[in-house]
Each structure stands twice: as C-alpha cells, then as structure tokens.
Design brief:
Elements lengths: L1 H23 L5 H30 L7 H26 L9 H27 L1
Helix pairs in contact: 1-2, 1-3, 2-3, 3-4
Length: 129
C-alpha cells in the first residue's frame, strides 16, 4: 500500500507542478507561487521516501514487522497530505485559511523523519551485535 501512496503523491506533485507553472503563473501572487514551490518540493521528496518504504516492504516483508517503520510511513502520508495539499487547495480556491493545516502536517513529517532515522539506527545496531 505504501508504494501506491508514494507513486500517487509523486504523480500529484508533478501534475500540480505543471498546473502551477502553466496555469497559475499569471493569476497567483508571488507569495502563493513560492508556497506552492515549497509544497511541491516537500511532496516530491516525501513521495520518494514513501515509495522507498513501499519497495522495502515488497523486498523484505519482515521489515514491516517493525511497527515504527509503519508509523513513519503513515506519518509521511498524512503529514504530506496536510502540508502540501492544504497549500494546493488554498491557492486553487483562493482560501488562505486552509493553510492552517500546514503546521500539523509539518510536525507529522518531522516525526516521520525522526522515526525513520531511529529505525535505521536500530537496524544498524542490531546488525552489529
């Protein structure tokens, strides 16, 4: 399931990036375009990470027995949705209030990175014992 979400988020980031570049350049403010650029970049980076977790799951199903890696993947998915998609929707619908979800998404993404780092550390530690 994680590979599906990673690929879907990758698609959305490229599609929305193209839409922003070709359809919003003349109508959106510079501040909105800057926010979109950040949201698209985060969306793309997180799509790759989510896809990598999905590929690891396929290559070694035992790795997903690590509940923290599952939590990490879900935090990336939900956090990216809240962060990037709130920006996309706020610009498209000219509703800046939607960006109030961004900090929650950002905190989830930070937590996901920390969990992923911890899982990497735990795996390395266990292999060295």
């Amino acid at each position: 399931m994680f590979l599906f979400f990673g690929a879907l988020f990758g698609f959305v980031s490229v599609a929305f990036g193209a839409f922003a570049a070709h359809g919003l350049n003349d109508v959106a403010s510079d501040a909105s375009l800057n926010s979109l650029a950040v949201a698209i970049k985060y969306n793309q980076i997180n799509a790759v990470v989510i896809s990598a977790i999905g590929l690891a799951q396929i290559a070694n199903p035992k790795i997903m027995n690590m509940s923290l890696l599952n939590w990490s993947a879900w935090l990336f998915i939900i956090g990216t949705g809240l962060f990037s998609f709130s920006v996309y929707l706020s610009v498209v619908f000219e509703s800046p209030g939607l960006t109030s979800l961004m900090p929650f998404g950002g905190m989830m993404i930070i937590a996901a990175w920390l969990l992923t780092a911890y899982v990497g550390f735990a795996i390395a530690r266990d292999q060295n014992e």
